[in-house]
Amino acid sequence: MFTSYEEVMDFCRERGIEMIDFKMIDLVGRWRHLSIPASRFTPDTLKYGIGFDGSNYGFAPVENSDMVFIPDISTAVFDPFTEVATLSMIGDVYVIAQPDNYRFDQDPRAIAFNAEEYMKSTGIADEMRIGPEFEFFVFDHVSFECNPQKTGFSIDAEQAIWNSGENEYQNLGYKVPHKGGYHTAPPQDVLYDLRARMCLLMEENNIPVKYHHHEVGGPGQIEIEVEFGGMREMADRTMLTKYLIKNMAFAEGKTVTFMPKPIYGEVGSGLHVHMHLFKNNKPIFFDPDGYSQLSQEALYFIGGILKHAPALLAFTNPSTNSYKRLVPGYEAPVSMCFGTANRSAVIRVPAYAKAPEHKRFEFRSSDATCNPYLAYSAMLMAGLDGIINKIDPSAEGFGPYDINLYNLPPEEQARIKGLPKSLDEALDALVKDHEFLLAGGVFPQRLIDIWIKNKRQESRRVNDIPHPMEFELYYDL
Questions:
Q1: pTM above 0.90, yes or no
Q2: What domains does the chain contain, in order, with CATH numbers?
Q3: Least enclosed by CB within 10 Å: which of 74, 114, 270, 419?
């Protein structure tokens, strides 16, 4: 938004800004923030930054946790949800050193920056453009607890089919059937106006929206797809999109979750990521004579992603809940393969994207519990590894498959490699296969080690807790 300190202060005076808020990304992908009065924002803030305790972000060890963040004024936006007029911007993390501080290599934004620089250094491309599809549920109620004597959750959406027999209040019907929400129209689609306001707010904050609609999930699942942007820029926009969506819903008495599988028996929510590479503003994924008009570089890129997919999922699907979505029968991919217009494959080549500058493919397994800086960077690194090492997806047995994989005979399905079935399986794959992430010093080994350790602990916490289904299955034995 801004290129100089003077532009920031001119905007603050024009808009009556009283507070300046700084947002930093922690390791798992949540925003943290700190605010100062606008009068305290000086050129020294941009030079020396503001100190904070990095250990609470999941980064540095406690004995060496003093760090600073330097605001990136180009990311500044007016926060529409604060009563006090507030300008918000993202901060980059630096290590305190003499004579000069230096960029912290575990900062997710630094990793995304390094990934883009590595891409340029290879000579393959100078830009990766991506376009995410944001899927999420809007609920009217959620409660959950996890105590020794009582564990469970309760959710509700007024439009859900399970409320069709509700008599405690006036019931006007028009509920959305189970798995019947795709492109449903009003009056069933009670979330249209909320979605529209979300999209307009995103547009106001420099996040161009492609379209929005109700998704398949009957109890309030919706999708907003955005236009393409640079990889690191889109990671910033992903964080801002989630912030705007969640806060707008909250302000209107609703609650939003990007959990991949909040409801058993309904389809889950993914974060499908469309991607293509450019060099000197020219697309390198297009070849009129290639399979589905894809160039050899595009196919090698696909080969890299699919070969490294098990390890990749440790960053793109980093929650235990992620793998409750990646199961057959719910429109989520479970097989490591590619195909044109094939939504049952991990990588789908859109048939409608015919122009050279639009030729691309999408990675369909990822979900929004990821840290977008790490996930998008890992995708790029896997794809670049495929091009550098000429990983042919067909030679590796990844297809193409231009048919519904669920209709294949069992013996043919068995020949297609499957995605990890749990977070632990993905972490096991990452332990064995992460050299592609270390290329060019993009991902520090220390970060990968911390990530694996922390995610193992998360998985253990979930696995150690008795599940309600276990009572149904085993209580009377």
A1: yes
A2: 5-104 (3.10.20.70), 127-474 (3.30.590.10)
A3: 74
